[in-house]
Amino acid sequence: MVENRENVFEVDGKEVSLEELIGGYKKSKSEKKSKNKAQQKRADEQKLKPYQAELIKLQKYLEETNQKMIILFEGRDAAGKGGTIRRVTRYMDEKHYRVVALGKPTEEQKTQWFYQKYIQHFPHAGEIVLFDRSWYNRAMVESVFNFCTQKEYEDFMGGVKGFENDLVRQGTILVKLYYSVTKDEQARRFERRKTDPLRQWKLSEIDMQAQEKWDEFTTTKYNMIKQTHSHSAPWTIIRSNDKQKARLESLKVILNAVDYAGRDENLNYALDPKIVISGAREIEIMDAQITSTGKFIG
After folding, report:
1. CA quadruple 110, 116, 120, 126: dihedral sign
2. Of 1, 67, 205, 240, which is most buried, counting CB atoms within 10 Å of its CB?
3. H or E element at residue 298
């Protein structure tokens, strides 16, 4: 490289300005970063595949034994529920699973028994139904935004354990997952939704208020987990700041819920205690926060 005149250089026989050199360097660095990110994403997806293959075995086992399974995906907005559901179902037999994501109740549904709109989507023998938000909407979003009355909320909280106990007693396998993300990480994901045209559809009016009502959601989450965690229908908390780890651990939780035939014993099904926390343990952690600081943290 030989300098010809000020801020102009000769590179491979061509004159190049300093601005062009800097621009080329930045472009090269950006492309390398994008390439590395894409490679890491592919590697992360590869790690899921052995467990996704196990999910196919689980699904086949449920079909052969005529068992029913319901998986609830709950948590704050942008906590990673949708992405996890896509990884869970990616290779499953579409004839034997359904994803249910219900909108706000119709006027007719408002006059019905609260659980009626959910029950009509329950699995038949040999099927898995994944609820992207469930009847716990009443305990979280509806409560925080006053979409239900205090009596409706209290009726739900007082009766949901009995409802779920009946489900389990009658043979339905019920898995309840709550995705827990920090306030800063949620804000970062919301900002990405605002600026990414492929993600803007995810940003709703309620999302825009989620940060403002962070503390209300935290208190409501505490009450929900504390009052609705039970031996027959326990909550499992998934720390989801790291989406990849959250997805992998979610697959393990689901696989561990069923003693299915043909399990690959060479796989590691042990849960990461930094990512997966029982509902009972989560309440202990939150109680300790209140005792030591007078408020919930994170």
Report:
1. positive
2. 240
3. none
> Please, is 235 exposed, middle or buried when counting C-beta atoms within 10 Å of its C-beta (0-12, 13-18, 19+)?
buried
Which residues, at least 6 apart from 208, have a Cβ–Cβ distance to it below 8 Å?
190
- CA dihedral over 147, 153, 157, 160, signed as positive or negative: negative
Phi-psi region of 13 (alpha: psi -120 to 50; beta: other; left: phi over 0): left
Q: What is the pLDDT of residues 6-33, one digit of tens each?
A: 677 777 767 878 787 777 777 776 666 6
Do 283 and 222 contact (CB within 8 A), yes or no?
yes
Fold of 21-293: Rossmann fold (3.40.50)
Q: How far apart are CA 295 and CA 298, in angstroms?
A: 10
* Residue 236 tokens, joined: 């499992």
97 contacts: CB under 8 Å, gap ≥ 6: 59, 89, 127, 128, 129, 130
Q: Quick check: 211 and 193 in contact, CB under 8 A?
A: no
pLDDT band at 5 (very low <50, low <70, confident <90, very high): low
Both structure tokens of 78: 């942008």
C-alpha count within 13 angstroms, C-beta hemisphere, residue 80 = 26
Neighbours of 14 (CB within 10 A): 8
173 within 8 A of 257, measured Cβ to Cβ: yes
